[in-house]
Backbone:
């Protein structure tokens, strides 16, 4: 019979959070300025996760926190696969799955004919009915990337056993409620902090009001643009 590991105590959670913060700070991933986030909101601080994820040793250590949680007391995995959203979630899902000895897959953003966006498992990836799925991602602001994956897993008949991120920058305010089933999934973060965000424009964003140039983090580097 499988024996599940007990939940982490407060001291262990605090130690994991401190170590995650240390790895982010060591890499220079916590930046200050005026940034537009993927959600379209603005912030005066930004977490550049790829400065951490480029470090294979740091990434392995962070994913190890998740992998240990999803092994039973005999060392066997308690999930059948790990899934993450593009782009950072690919790295995290693969490394966590590697440590657990299970499959690692990713969901891509797809635009429907009506213009709406959703997440799909493509490229031959499959989730069989009843498979236990661990969802992982890097930085959570609104929860949109993880939330968009949930219907794809549920529609395939997969059982979501956990939703985890490296950093929850919402201060614990984000929720994951499936738009398909209405089920609410608990969210777990290695490091939780509150970084305020604002709608674009000088009426809402203090950095816009101050005229601070807007930076747009992206795949081609950090570009700059005039304040919104």
Residues:
């Amino acid at each position: 019979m499988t024996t599940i590991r007990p939940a982490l105590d407060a001291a262990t959670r605090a130690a994991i959070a401190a170590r995650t913060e240390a790895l982010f700070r060591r890499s220079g991933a916590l930046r200050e300025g005026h940034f537009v986030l993927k959600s379209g909101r603005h912030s005066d601080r930004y977490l550049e996760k790829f400065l951490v994820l480029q470090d294979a040793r740091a990434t392995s250590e962070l994913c190890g926190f998740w992998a240990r949680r999803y092994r039973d007391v005999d060392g066997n995995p308690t999930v059948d696969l790990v899934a993450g959203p593009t782009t950072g979630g690919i790295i995290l899902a693969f490394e966590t799955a590697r440590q657990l000895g299970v499959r690692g897959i990713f969901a891509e953003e797809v635009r429907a004919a009506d213009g709406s966006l959703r997440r799909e498992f493509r490229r031959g990836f499959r989730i069989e009915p009843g498979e236990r799925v661990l969802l992982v991602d890097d930085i959570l602001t609104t929860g949109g990337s993880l939330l968009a994956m949930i219907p794809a897993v549920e529609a395939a008949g997969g059982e979501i056993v956990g939703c985890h991120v490296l950093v929850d920058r919402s201060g614990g305010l984000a929720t994951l409620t499936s738009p398909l089933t209405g089920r609410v999934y608990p969210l777990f973060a290695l490091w939780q902090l509150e970084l305020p965000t604002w709608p674009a424009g000088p009426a809402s964003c203090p950095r816009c009001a101050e005229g601070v140039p807007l930076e747009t983090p992206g795949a081609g580097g950090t570009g700059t643009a005039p304040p919104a």
Q: What stands out?
A: The longest helix spans residues 10-27.
